[in-house]
Write a structure and sequence with these properties.
The protein is of the alpha/beta class. The chain is built from 34 helices and 30 strands. A hairpin with a 2-residue loop joins strand 27 and strand 28. Helix 7 runs parallel beside helix 10, helix 25 crosses helix 34 and helix 29 packs across helix 31. The two termini are about 45 Å apart.
């Protein structure tokens, strides 16, 4: 593939570009907008020349219109000459249904404005599209198709719809960065290649337009957009508006007191920010936090309670749309959400974005902040709220990287086998196709360019009969395709096509129960959560306290319980891991500040350095320095080429804290390797607790290890094999296999006419998983489940890279009389899990206060700690 040099300056002036447009389009544009934005000046010439382009630009820069202007120009010229053919001319692909709805509405303005109502139609195709609209599109195709990756794949597999796509000239993929690193993107990349394969030799080349607000590296994203062997321009619009980011400092003399650890006390400050602004979005990293904060803000601001709402993916679509519309119309003062408002849904004028706890990455922070000041003439204003002093260091590093726009690099997902299996069936559902042609099509999509023919053959073998272990007795059940002597692949039976159409997509069923309030679906919660409740129990959903009054097969019926103390649901959402770039920035801050504190007894220069280099308040700088001083007073600071392990004994347990600032997913992988090796050396099981900054192994006294024992546990050799062995005894691979089996069509989610129950899906997946583990361990779908477990859920690559590095580190094992300040966050995670009778937040506050007091006493008395060191 050829990627053009990054373009940041426009070759056309506004006047010369306007002159290239069709007169009706030029007239409408000049009547509607004062001038072209920089993004439009960069993008439109490429689209007019039918050249594929990746455009990155800030939120509110007019990039979506930049993509569509060239399409309208082409349509107008075809209408003028009477050569507008039947069929779709432009396909717009959105990551979100809500964004697709917005685009469909926004496209109507230029169509009406140019008087094209009778010439140009729009078809919105998602899972919610009524059957009558689908039939209408089948018989009378629209020029614009607005859809999602899943619905596009459905259309490509049916001749009655696919024939309307064969003459498409433009494909616009919005929020391209949100696809690149996941299975939906891998799925979409093959769909785009299948769209290319539909085209006739005389059809004009397909112009692919990728739109992204925040992305790096751009050449990789461009290659993801167009695939192998095609040209793509790359353009980056300059930032025309200021982006302001601050680290929140409450107006108090000591904003992060040693006696406080959790973020509970910040609710008051959040409520004050809402009072001072007209429209605020509060982002959290998990849904449970969104629910908790939304509820507490309503309690603290009773006069604004009806203007504060919660928004996340577990709420019913009608509830989310209502919140979005009220926010857009200026009816809400605050919306508290998890990640559901990060992408480009039209939400109107927001003047402040608040992030409670850091978003764990720079690109995500920039994306969130960009939701405020949603136009080029308004600054984006974001505040990072650190929930405790440990979070404060991360927030400080995040803010600096946001100002520098040091984006997190995107990594594309490599050749997921279950996606390949699904698309093979989709391709032959349309028509019988030679195996070689399918293979070459797959390899043109970037995520699959390294797919070997041996891997491809193994997937074909699975689709023929289920694989070696299942084919002898169950070919009729698991067989999806047949291959003739000429290596032409076709469907094994006509019913396969019907079953396939209701099982397309990579979004896996998670087993949720609908929550019904006054006959209206309010949202959903996990089955496991409801099963653990009793009738009359209270919980929070949508910012409301609800009482469970009855349960059905897949429903939970509730009533409002305003004013009562709730049990906040623990949502089944994994915490986002720290990105590698941000982890590196925190390590650099640690190393530089530690060096200053070790050599200078006066903190003044360290405080000045933090304030000047990181643009934080003096109070926040003091909080960071005090924490580092406290850490040095009892232990050491893990920085540079230093492997620090802290041992704290408590009753009948020995807690080993391993400081490894490599992110949650990598520490999850690393801790499983070490725990497996500890078990093999000492016997018994190790209790593991992880976070972004390291992990905690809790052992019994008979399992205690010396520093040399621990070094042996960190050997690099056979790390991947030990991780796989540890995973074989865990639930993680089995859990991953459920999703792979559904995406790979081994366990259908649905049958024509009805959905299968979650219990049925789980039972089917578990039986097949056991058979394959025992009889066919190299089955492609089982291999994919292990790969997902090791490289998506976990980060085995970073974990093994860390094992490579630590072989050359200085090692220290410190036995401490108290948990050190740097280790307390992970210790807090452990003790919260065991809290039964005491409120977890109050317990953590109490224990932090007690532990910090002991740390101060130890530092003041210069108590010696037991230390083992080695190189």
């Amino acid at each position: 593939m050829t990627v053009s040099a990054l373009k940041r300056s426009a070759s056309d002036t506004s006047e010369s570009l306007a002159a290239k447009l069709h007169p009706r389009l030029r007239q409408w544009f000049r009547a509607s907008y004062p001038d072209f934005t920089h993004a439009q000046l960069l993008c439109l010439p490429a689209v007019l020349d039918r050249e594929s382009i990746l455009l990155t630009s800030p939120t509110g820069s007019g990039k979506t219109l930049a993509g569509f202007l060239g399409v309208f120009d082409s349509l107008l010229r075809q209408i003028e000459t009477g050569q507008l053919p039947m069929g779709v001319r432009c396909i717009y692909v959105s990551p979100l249904r809500a964004l697709a709805y917005d685009i469909e509405k926004n496209l109507r303005a230029p169509i009406i404005g140019m008087g094209l109502d009778n010439d140009i139609r729009i078809h919105l195709r998602t899972g919610d599209t009524p059957a009558s609209e689908r039939v209408k599109f089948r018989d009378h195709p629209a020029q614009f198709l607005v859809t999602t990756p899943e619905s596009l794949a459905v259309l490509l597999a049916q001749e009655s719809y696919a024939r309307h796509l064969a003459a498409a000239e433009f494909v616009i993929v919005d929020e391209l960065h949100s696809f690149a690193a996941n299975k939906r993107g891998a799925d979409l990349s093959i769909s785009l290649e299948r769209l290319e394969a539909l085209r006739t030799a005389t059809a004009p080349k397909l112009c692919r337009i990728g739109l992204s607000a925040t992305a790096a590296p751009l050449d990789l994203l461009a290659q993801f957009l167009v695939g192998e062997g095609r040209f793509c321009r790359v353009a980056e619009a300059r930032i025309e508006k200021e982006q302001i980011v601050e680290v929140f400092s409450p107006i108090r003399r000591d904003p992060y007191p040693p006696s406080g650890y959790t973020g509970v006390r910040l609710y008051t400050e959040l409520s004050q920010l809402i009072r001072l602004h007209q429209s605020v979005i509060v982002f959290t990293n998990v849904r449970s936090a969104a629910e908790q904060i939304g509820l507490r803000l309503k309690e603290l601001l009773p006069e604004l309670a009806d203007q504060i709402e919660t928004h996340h993916a577990s709420l019913d679509r009608s509830v989310r749309v209502e919140v979005e519309d009220r926010l857009k119309n200026g009816e809400l003062r605050a919306v508290v959400c998890s990640t559901s408002l990060e992408l480009g849904i039209d939400i109107g004028a927001v003047d402040l974005v608040v992030m409670v706890a850091t978003p764990k990455g720079v690109s995500r922070a920039i994306q969130r902040i960009g939701r405020s000041g949603h136009s080029l003439d308004k600054s984006s204003y974001g505040i990072l709220v650190a929930t405790n002093v440990n979070d404060l260091v991360e927030a400080t590093a995040t803010a600096k990287l946001v100002r520098e726009r040091a984006l997190d690099p995107i990594r594309t997902l490599e050749k997921p086998y279950d996606v390949i299996a699904q698309h093979i069936v989709g391709i032959v559902a349309l028509k019988a196709t030679p195996a070689e042609a399918i293979y070459q099509l797959m390899r043109r999509a970037l995520p699959f360019h390294d797919l070997s023919y041996d891997e491809f053959e193994r997937i074909l073998q699975y689709l023929e009969g289920g694989g070696d272990a299942l084919a002898q007795q169950y070919t009729g059940i698991f067989g999806k395709i047949s291959i003739d002597h000429d290596r032409v692949v076709s469907l094994a039976h006509p019913r396969i096509a019907r079953e396939f159409l209701v099982n397309i997509g990579t979004i896996v069923s998670e087993g949720f129960v609908d929550v019904i309030l006054n006959r209206r679906r309010l949202g959903s919660v996990e089955e496991a959560f409801i099963k653990g409740m009793q009738l009359g129990d209270l919980f929070v959903l949508g910012g409301r306290v609800l009482r469970l009054i009855e349960t059905g097969l897949q429903e939970a019926y509730v009533e409002r319980a305003d004013g009562h103390l709730p049990t906040v649901p623990r949502w089944n959402a994994a915490k986002m891991p720290l990105t590698s770039g941000l982890a590196r920035a925190v390590r650099e801050l640690r190393a530089q500040l530690a060096a200053r504190l070790r050599t200078d007894s006066d903190d003044r220069s360290s405080l000045d350095w933090l304030v000047e280099n990181y643009q934080i308040s003096l109070a926040n700088a003091q909080a960071i320095v005090e924490q580092f001083r406290a850490q040095l007073g009892i232990s050491d600071i893990p920085d540079g080429d230093r492997m620090l392990i802290e041992l704290y004994r408590e009753e009948n347990f020995s807690h080993y804290f391993f400081h490894a600032l490599i992110g949650r997913s990598a520490n999850d992988a690393l801790s499983r390797i070490i725990a497996w090796r500890v078990k093999n050396r000492s016997g018994g099981n190790a209790l593991v607790t992880i976070d972004d900054y390291g992990f905690l192994l809790t052992l019994r006294p008979f399992q205690e290890l010396t520093l040399e024992d621990l070094r042996l546990c960190f050997e690099r050799e056979a790390a991947e094999e030990d991780l796989r062995a540890a995973l074989r005894r865990s639930e993680l691979v089995k859990w991953q296999f459920r999703g792979v089996a559904q995406t790979g069509l081994m366990v259908p989610r649905n049958y024509p006419g009805h959905a299968r129950k979650k219990k049925q899906l789980n039972w089917s997946s578990e039986v097949i998983f056991r058979v394959l583990e025992q009889h066919e361990p190299h089955h492609p779908l089982l291999e994919e489940a292990y790969r997902q477990a090791m490289h998506i859920f976990l980060d085995a690559e970073e974990a093994t890279a860390f094992l490579d590095r630590v072989q050359h580190y200085d090692w220290t094992l410190q036995e401490l009389p108290a948990v050190s300040p740097f280790s307390f966050p992970i210790y807090a995670s452990k003790i919260k899990e065991s809290m039964m009778l005491e409120d977890p937040a109050m317990a953590v506050e109490r224990i932090y206060h007690e532990m910090y007091a002991r740390v101060e006493q130890i530092a003041a008395a210069e108590t010696k700690v037991t230390t083992q060191s080695s190189r």
